[in-house]
Amino acid sequence: MLDKEEIKKIIPQREPFLMIDEVENYIPGESAVAYKNVNEDEWYFKGHFPGNPIMPGVLITESLAQAGAVAILSMEENKGKNAIFGGIDKMKFKKMVVPGDKLKLEVKIIKRKGPVGVGEAIATVDGKIAAKGELTFAVM
Predict the structure, then answer these.
(1) Nearest residue to 55 (alpha-carbon basis) of 102, 15, 22
(2) pLDDT of the residue at 6
(3) Domain-by-domain residue ranges, the chain?
(4) Is residue 93 within 8 Å of 57, Cβ to Cβ?
(5) What's the pLDDT score for residue 87?
(6) C-beta pairs of 114-122 under 8 Å, 24+ apart in sequence
(7) Separation of alpha carbons 98 and 70, rounded Å
(8) Which of 1, 26, 94, 131 has the fewest CB atoms inside 10 Å of its own CB, making it the most exposed?
(9) HEC profile of the chain
(10) Is 48 assigned a catalytic role?
């Protein structure tokens, strides 16, 4: 299990944009399972939406991307680099994510060619799919 400080040794994101709290396990270049503990004090809930806080889909997607970045940037040849979005495909949002949820983020790298690759990404809460899709990344 990696905590936030250990995650920061792998990916460059920092608060308030570090969107994962812990990594349960990862295989460099292949996969990662991470978690985001969604709490009512998150900066984005002030405006999304007052009185009805819902985690924005784009931030669920970013959380998934950061989990995938742990898998990619933990590879020896990618240490100290950054993984950026190249595309988001087939992303579907199935369940609202709200304060108190523990978002499980699973990313499996399904394709890689040079610095570009694709990750199959699934976010769940209590075993129910919140979002799923494919994320294309480029290592810079």
Answers:
(1) 102
(2) 98
(3) 4-139
(4) yes
(5) 97
(6) 115/139, 115/140, 116/86, 117/72, 119/64, 119/65, 119/68, 119/71, 121/61, 121/64, 121/65, 121/67, 121/68, 122/64
(7) 24
(8) 1
(9) CECHHHHHCCCCCCCCCCCCCEEEEEECCCEEEEEEECCCCCHHHHCCCCCCCCCCHHHHHHHHHHHHHHHHHCCHHHCCCCEEEEEEEEEEECCCCCCCCEEEEEEEEEEEECCEEEEEEEEEECCEEEEEEEEEEEEC
(10) yes
pLDDT tens-place string over residues 36-75: 999 999 999 999 999 999 999 999 999 999 999 999 999 9
Token pair 């998150």 in the structure block, residue: 42
Mind listing the pLDDT tens digit for each residue in 98-129? Answer: 999 999 999 999 999 999 999 999 999 999 99
Choices 2.60.40.290, 2.40.30.40, 3.10.129.10, 3.60.150.10: CATH for 4-139: 3.10.129.10
* Residue tagged active-site, from 8, 48, 108, 132: 48
